[in-house]
Write a structure and sequence with these properties.
By secondary structure, the protein is α+β, with helices and mostly antiparallel strands. Helices cover about 30% and strands about 20% of the residues. Helix 1 packs antiparallel against helix 2 and helix 2 packs antiparallel against helix 3.
Length: about 150
């Protein structure tokens, strides 16, 4: 993976016509959508795609805001979904998700992204890297329109 920007996805269509890295949450979402379209040929359930795009956006935004910058991005289609990995430069893991009553939302500033990731994603793994920084990997299930829950 590249040290700056987003690396092209493994096993999927690259992030753009030139295969160049995509440096923003918006570009990462577009790339993730293109991976779904290439793998599932638009048969994926739209609610699963929306969950994927929300999680991609939150992970990339958190890397940019709190992780010292984005160091890598990867999407890998697997049998039951897409594995998303986001690498940043910070050794700090996200704060634990608050309990059932974290306080009234009107009195909080931020802090919604990581709980959203925890709620929507599966198989969340945080790996601290020996050279510094961390990679957060998650699995987002993708069901097809004809497949039952």
């Amino acid at each position: 993976m590249r040290e700056e920007g987003l690396a092209p996805a493994r096993g999927a269509v690259g992030p753009g016509p030139s295969g160049a890295p995509v440096p923003t949450a918006s570009a990462a979402r577009a790339h993730a959508r293109s991976v779904v379209d290439a793998r599932w040929d638009r048969a994926a359930r739209e609610e699963d795609v929306i969950d994927l795009l929300l999680v991609v956006s939150e992970l990339v935004t958190n890397a940019l805001r709190h992780g010292g910058g984005l160091a890598g991005f990867e999407t890998t289609p697997v049998a039951d979904g897409i594995r998303v990995s986001v690498r940043d430069h910070s050794d700090e893991a996200p704060a634990a998700v608050p309990g059932p009553d974290p306080g009234r939302a009107g009195h909080r500033v931020g802090g919604y992204g990581w709980p959203l990731v925890v709620r929507l994603a599966r198989e969340i793994v945080i790996d601290r890297l020996p050279t510094g920084g961390k990679t957060i990997s998650v699995l987002l299930p993708i069901r097809t329109a004809g497949r039952p829950d």
